[in-house]
Structures are given as structure tokens and as C-alpha cells.
Amino acid sequence: MKVYMDYSATTPVKKEVLDAMIPFFTEQYGNPSSIYQMGQASKKAIDEARDKIAKTFNARQDEIYFTGCGSESDNWAIKGTAHALKHIGNHIITSSVEHHAVLHTCEYLEKQGFEITYLPVDSEGLVSLEDLKNAIKDTTILISIMYANNEIGTIQPIEEIGKIAKEKGILFHTDAVQAYGHIVIDTQALPVDMISVSAHKLYGPKGVGALYLRKGIKIHNLLHGGGQEKGRRAGTENIAGIVGFGKAAEMAYTDIEAHDKKLTTFRNDLTKRIMEAIPYTRLNGHKEKRLCNNVNISFQYVEGEGILLGLDMAGISASSGSACTSGSLDPSHVLLGIGLTHEIAHGSLRLTLGDMTTQEEIDYVVEKLPAIIQRLRDMSPLYEQVKEGNR
Amino acid sequence: MYSEKVMDHFTNPRNVGEIKDADAVGQVGNPKCGDIMKMYFKIENDTVKDVKFKTFGCGSAIASSSMATELIMGKTIDEALALSNKAVAEALDGLPAAKMHCSVLAEEAIKSAIYDYAQRNNKEYEGLKGYKPPTGDEDHHDLVEE
What we know:
The structure holds 2 protein chains of 2 kinds. By secondary structure, chain A is of the alpha/beta class. The longest helix of chain A is centred in the C-terminal third of the chain and has 22 residues, at 256-277. In chain A, helix 1 packs antiparallel against helix 9 (239-252) and helix 4 runs parallel beside helix 5 (100-111). Chain A contains 16 helices and 12 strands. In chain B, helix 1 (4-11) crosses helix 2 (59-72). Chain B has a single domain, classed as Sufe protein. Chain: A. Chain B has a 3-stranded antiparallel sheet. Chain B has helices at residues 4-11, 59-72, 77-81, 85-91, 100-121, and strands at residues 24-30, 35-44, 47-56. Chain B starts with a helix and ends in a 25-residue tail after the last helix. By secondary structure, chain B is α+β, with helices and mostly antiparallel strands. Chain A binds chain B through residues 301-306, 309, 313, 322-324, 327, 329, 331, 341-343, 346, 378-384, and chain B through 7, 10-11, 13, 16, 18, 27, 31-38, 54-62, 98-99, 139, 141.
């Protein structure tokens, strides 16, 4: 049996999405900047996709800008704000558990002379509103806090953060790459100025993202060149990708309540049964304020990469925050950020669910996982100490 | 990412376990780094009669332990001390660059155990000259020879 449980890494493109994209490769390939009919048809297709995405945000069409990926949207929002407002101040507030697209952008700006405050999070991954208020200075120009965490799924109090930002007259950006497609983000109700999203997390293609930029907000461009995207993001449009993104977003928000209900049930079932079947485990992230598709559990005394290899041999695709899978020597900054010891962070497993997840798949993972963990524990000198009562 | 040999030794590791009345025990690495290797030896006439390991770590750490124990089984102590991390990695048909430290850990675990044996029996071995037992705090990730 093949089980894909890494939907937060990426999703398959849905057939309806692919079907919508196909004509724009070989038949309808005109450049949207060209005035002849085929060019104008491409322009129309982009406008329609923009309209679909705007609707999901309850936003205006002219508040949606297409980019190459979620990381580009994050870079644009943060660097664009920093450069546009540096005459006002040089201080940016973010959190310690952001995606690297935000963290490394902030670190880059730090080297350019900006001052960055990285708000800590509590043991469930939430930032504190008090900490946020205390961090704000006269020089603060931007708050950038992720909507939902990519590793542990914790959903931040975005509305409250937005209100604080608005009161103080500070721009607020949220990286909603993981939240988009799972949560209703209503820009009429939510005081957020910029939102980064990506297509490939909600069954659209890779290589296309978007930035919601509230009407009237002026930030600098990241990409300079032609006049595409109303002069704010140069480069010939990825038409097929944009069309696919529009279709995928439309589908994702058609019945999002049913999506949320189905995945929440699966998530809770999977979490409960794993925790019951395997001792010495810890659920990472918030119990309720978490993405409907995210399960993140640490298994003590074993290392995450071994779990992933074992799962892979059983046909299950998943991910981990262990050092060995992050490409660095430290385990995930998110797991360390919520206060886990290195040892426990190394033994984390992230299972993320999606529209194609079935009850059979949940059952299969619950059936296979205990033996995989036990085999690694039987090899672990740390578990040996536990059995001997020395740990 | 991994060679077939690494996957074989990860899936079917050789010599996993403990030796209750071991003549020597060595442990290296620390949980902070994400890998700990522990080796148990039975030694007779300066020859490795039996060796077993327990490892907390990634796939390549488990495979390196397995391969290293296989390579020194039945060998003399001098031969076991001469085993380099490169030899372990080569026997596994190579390790990814970021995983070479796992083979270092295997070499260190053997040296640490034989040091324990030398201490217990008042012996000296050429291969242990200048050897300092691990304190548990060092970062073996820095020990990889390029």
C-alpha cells in the first residue's frame, strides 16, 4: 500500500486543475502583454484566476498579485516594506518559529542594518500578545507572524495581532502558505495588510504563489522589469500556473467546512490511536488551535530519520524535524522553539493529511507505525536505559 | 540518498544488542547531536570474540554501527583499532557528505570500548596512543576528515 501523508510539503495537482492548465501550454500560449487575440485571451485567463483567488479572500481583484512561490511572496512583503518604510523606522517584529522564507529574509535585513525582534512562543507554539505589545517601538514598521505553523500546525491569534498592529499603525504581514486552503481568511473582517500564499499546498501546481496586498499599501518591488502585475512584479506571467492556482483555490474554498470536518476527524483519530498504541510519545503543537490536517508527534529515544526510512519501506511518505532530515546539525527551530530538548526534537514525526486521505490509509499507518518505532527503540541505548530504570 | 548497502544494514542490522558480561563497553556521541553509539565487546587473547551495538541515530548511524561491528568481528585488537571511518564508509559503498560523521562515530565507539578494555586490564595498545576518552560533550560532527 502506498500512503502519502506529507500534504504540508506539497500536494498532487487535481485533475480538474491540470485540465484547466493544459490548453495554455500548446494552444493558448500567447503573451498576455501582446495585443492580438491570443495574447488578450491569456490576459483574460489571468484576470479570471485573480478574480477566483480574490473571492477566496473576500478581497478586490486588484489586491491580488501573482508571484513565483510562497517564499517570493514572503520576501516581497518583508523586504518591500522594509525598503519602503526605512525612513520611518528600522524595526521588524516576527516570531522564532516562522518558515525560513521569513526568518532568513529577516536575518538578511538584520545584516542590512534593520533591527529584528523574534518573539518566542509557548510550549504549544503560540506567540504572546503581551510580548508583542511590549516589543513594539516607535521605530517598528512591520509585524510578520505566520498564520499557521508548517511543522506543528499551531494557528496564531491573527485577528488579535492584526488589531494591535492596526492600533499602532504598523503594517501586518502573515505567511498563510499552510493555512490557505484549510482556513477561511476574510480580508474584510481580518485586519491584515499582506498575506503570502502558494498554489502547490492546495492541489495547484508548483511554481506559483500570490501576495494579497491591501489596497493603498505601497511597498517596494522585489522584481524590477516589465509592467506586469500592474507594474509591481515584473516577468512574463506563468499563465498555466496562474490558471491552475485559480482553479485550485476555487475548488479548495467551495466546501471548506466539509474539508475541515473530514480532516479534523481523521487527524484526531490518527493522533489518538498513535498515542494510545505507542508509549513515551508527545503531541507537538496546540491541541485545538491547530491545522485540521496536521499531526506532529515526538517518539522518545528514537531518531526521526530512522522513522521516515522505516515508514518509507512500508510505503508511507512523511516528514520529520530531526537534524538528519533538515540538512543541518540541529533539529527543527520550531521544535526547539516550543521548548523541546534536542533529544525529543530529533524523534519527531509529522504526518499531514489531505483531500485524498482515506480511513484505510489512517488504519494502515496506525498498524505499521508501532513496530517501526519499537524496532528502533530496541536498537537504542537510550531506551535500554529506560528499561533498566536509569532514565 | 543512501546506497543499497546502507539500506541493507539499516533494515537488517548485524550484531544489534547487548553483551551482559562484556569485557569492554564504549559509548560515544550525545543526544543533543541526535546520535549515540554504544558497543559491547567480548575479548579473548587480544581478539574480538564478539561485538554488539546499540545506536540512537539516523539510518546511516545504524548502518555504520552494523558495518563497523561486522568488519572487526574476529579481528585482533590492533586490527580493530586500525579501522578508519573511511573504511566503514567505503564498505557501505559510501555515505552522503553530511552523514560522514556517522562513520566517525563508529570508529570512535570501537576506540572508546578498547580504551575501556585497556584500562580494565592494564594494557597498552599502539592504536590508542594519544587517545583521549570522550567526555560526552564533544561534537563529533567536527571530526570528519575531508
